[in-house]
């Protein structure tokens, strides 16, 4: 495992922990898109079904279990534990416009036409757009809490580091996965505007807002 993948995994884990702590400590999920969190839970569920069929390494298995457990814990906190604080009026992105096309694309463009491979491909495509309900929610409310922007920053950083990881693996291992790379590029592009605002506003102590 190279340093870019390791730091990418740690950035991803940091994002998840930041979000969970934010919700738990404030006893509120205000400003958090429950729809994005459901999509991420779906991403991890469909991607890590290989936990039941193959063992790669202890690290690999532990990280997969952590991602799945944290994803469902977040969904539980939003829709059950702190349901009264969930802002459903602003979390209105039509997720079917993401899930249905992504599902169709996974059937058409994949490495192998088998159930596990199609579900893995579906998860890769879906992850690239799963943050859209959260960004849409921020654009509707006009701003985001600082802790929420930290969560988004580390989530975007994770994907950017994974892109570098794919480049590293291509040059040093001869490994090339077009599906993962294209999806990673799409996801990173979606974060570009946010990264700019994060650096120019949040790091200077200002609140972040996205143009409506």
Automatic annotation (TrEMBL):
Entry's transmembrane regions: 65-82, 94-113, 119-139, 151-172, 178-199
Entry keyword annotation includes Transmembrane: yes
Localization terms from the record: Cytoplasmic vesicle, COPI-coated vesicle membrane; Endoplasmic reticulum membrane; Golgi apparatus membrane
Family annotation (PROSITE patterns): ER_LUMEN_RECEPTOR_1, ER_LUMEN_RECEPTOR_2
Any one GO molecular-function label of the UniProt entry: ER retention sequence binding
Membrane topology of this protein: Multi-pass membrane protein
Keywords in alphabetical order: Cytoplasmic vesicle, Endoplasmic reticulum, ER-Golgi transport, Membrane, Protein transport, Receptor, Transmembrane, Transmembrane helix, Transport
Translocase listed as a keyword: no
GO terms (BP aspect): protein retention in ER lumen; protein transport; vesicle-mediated transport
GO cellular component terms, A-Z: COPI-coated vesicle membrane; endoplasmic reticulum membrane; Golgi membrane
Superkingdom of source: Eukaryota
InterPro entries registered for this protein in UniProt: ER_ret_rcpt
Similarity section: Belongs to the ERD2 family.
Name the record gives this protein: ER lumen protein-retaining receptor
Organism: Culter alburnus (Topmouth culter)
Lineage of the species this protein comes from: Eukaryota, Metazoa, Chordata, Craniata, Vertebrata
């Amino acid at each position: 495992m190279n340093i870019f993948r390791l730091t990418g995994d740690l950035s991803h884990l940091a994002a998840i922990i930041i979000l969970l702590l934010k919700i738990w400590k404030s006893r509120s999920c205000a400003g958090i898109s429950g729809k994005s969190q459901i999509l991420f839970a779906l991403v991890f569920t469909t991607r890590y079904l290989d936990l039941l069929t193959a063992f790669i390494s202890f690290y690999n298995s532990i990280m997969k279990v952590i991602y799945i457990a944290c994803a469902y814990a977040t969904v539980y906190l939003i829709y059950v534990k702190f349901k009264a604080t969930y802002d459903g009026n602003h979390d209105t992105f039509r997720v079917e416009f993401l899930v249905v096309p992504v599902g169709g694309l996974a059937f058409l463009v994949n490495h192998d036409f088998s159930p596990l491979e199609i579900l893995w491909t579906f998860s890769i495509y879906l992850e690239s757009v799963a943050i859209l309900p959260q960004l849409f929610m921020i654009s509707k409310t006009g701003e985001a809490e600082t802790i929420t922007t930290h969560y988004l920053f580390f989530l975007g950083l994770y994907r950017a580091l994974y892109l570098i990881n794919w480049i590293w693996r291509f040059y040093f291992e001869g490994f090339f996965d077009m599906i993962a790379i294209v999806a990673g590029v799409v996801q990173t592009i979606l974060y570009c505007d946010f990264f700019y605002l994060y650096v120019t506003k949040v790091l200077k102590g200002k609140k972040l807002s996205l143009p409506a």
